[in-house]
Amino acid sequence: MSESRATGATAWSVLFVVIGLAFPQRLLAQDPVDDAVEKSIARALEFIASQQTDHGSWRTESWGDSSAITSLAVMSYLAAGHVPGEGIYGERINRGVRWVVGQQQPDGMLISKKSSHGPMYNHGICALMLGEVAGMMDGADAMVVRRSLEDAIRLILESQALSKNNRHQGGWRYQTNSRDSDLSVTGWQVMALRAAKDIGCDVPAEAIDAAVQYVKNCSARKNEGFSYQPGNAPTSTLTGIGITCLEVCGAHQTPEAIGGAKWLIEHPLHERSSYFYYGVYYTGVGMFKMGGNIAKENHKHLAGLLLPLQDDDGGWTPIHGSERQAGRIYATAAAVLALTVEYRYLPIYQR
Prior knowledge:
Strand order of the largest sheet: 1-2
Low-confidence stretches: 1-33
Number of helices: 14
Largest sheet: 2 strands, antiparallel
Oligomer: single chain
Strand content: under 5%
Structural class: mainly alpha
Helix content: 55-70%
């Protein structure tokens, strides 16, 4: 979707269409699928496979083995329809999951290096992955993953329960003992809680309610997008996070989400956007959750952005800021997760 189309009356008309129509029930896999997207996903998965280490992890360019990057890689396979222990990528998935579980700290933190400046980022991503894969594992692996997930969720809930002022209560920040919150870190914890709750883990309703309220606090004036912390300016990436959080928590079609979707139509993600690949993932999930024409047009928009940027070897190369340090597996996994959202293979993608 071009920026020229995403303005004024067109933006409002698209928004009204999605509100008035029932969500489509067919999966993209049952419809004609753009061949270029299918080939792009296949090439990306081959690239990710080629970069797995002998002990099962995936690495960042700057920080070495990473539990978060490994978890994103695992989820990219799940999102494309691959499952643990089966098919050409089944054993790679198993090895990645086992490596992540093996990094868990005594307090439940899922991180390979406690020195990380933002361990809750890593932890939330890993906990989300375990919540998605737990129901797919067999035998002893299933019990180990479930126990690891429960410990991870306990830590997330304990961190949320710390006393904070009203602007920050209900959210999360970089450290488990942080006394403020931000929407970026909060997004991963919300996704992890939702995935865990979906498979029967004990996630109190009041924890979800408190997280929803914090996300709403991050909605900008007049519900025009979402910001990093309450009172900040909105960005496309953070708006995708806000919409996603509300929708996965069951706060469907709220004024904040509807306003955020309208704002995102008028301010679409582009290659120069801050944290572009992060935004690709969250705007892909969030706008898909909104349904109807919003989901379809956003999927086309993201495919139009991503496919020309794919490298010859099947990966994507981030070029800006800390995304460049996170590296190619991070960017490639995020791209796959965005391009596969309409397949609905990941439980968190279900509407």
